[in-house]
Amino acid sequence: MIENNIIDLVPSDMTWGRPAGIVSRVDEFWDDGFVPLDPRVFRQLVIRNNVVRNMDGLPEPLALNTGISVNYCENALIEDNVIDLPGAKPIVAANCTNLRFFNNRNSAGQLIQGVVGTTKQNELTTFIEDAAILARLRRILM
User: Fold this and answer.
1) Which domain holds residue 84?
2) Phi/psi of residue 129, each to 5°?
3) Predicted confidence (pLDDT) at residue 33 exceeds the cutoff of 60
4) Are 48 and 68 in contact (CB under 8 A)?
């Protein structure tokens, strides 16, 4: 469980080791070669109520920073985080089996969707809004 943190990222002009706020990652390579991994290295992961931003509001030169990056999780819940970064993918995930995103926003209050690969993921907030709209439509049509 990672919660209630304020994380300030230092700008970097390097293309490797880009700044990241919260990372669950496993290196697949060891001294003796490739190690195959089960996608369930991290069985349960909750990332909640964190603030990830650039230090002193400084811009990231290459816009490569990431707020939250999760890999090899079986069950992960990422909710109520404020991620104030200019990058296109503030929340990214890979090799996970059950991800849930809820109410992650930037400092302006705009919803941030998690990205797996290149696909934005449905967010529990959008499911709730869709259900409310469908309930209203059903009431109108009946």
Assistant:
1) 2-141
2) -65, -40
3) no
4) no
Mean pLDDT for all residues in the chain: 81
Cα first-last separation, the chain:
45
Spatial separation of the C-alpha atoms in residues 121 and 140, rounded to whole Å: 30
- Tally the domains of the chain: 1
The answer to pTM > 0.85 is: no
Phi and psi dihedrals of 39, rounded to 5?
-70, 5
pLDDT (tens digit per residue) in 15-25: 666 778 898 87
Helical H runs in 16-123?
Answer: none
Rounded to an integer, what distance in angstroms lies between the CA atom of residue 82 and that of residue 119? 21
Give the type of residue at 117. G
Query: 104 burial class (0-12, 13-18, 19+ CB within 10 angstroms)?
Result: buried
Handedness of CA 71, 79, 19, 85 (dihedral sign): positive
Name, in order, each residue with C-beta under 8 angstroms of 77's C-beta and a sequence gap of 6 or more.
Answer: 45, 46, 47, 48, 100, 102
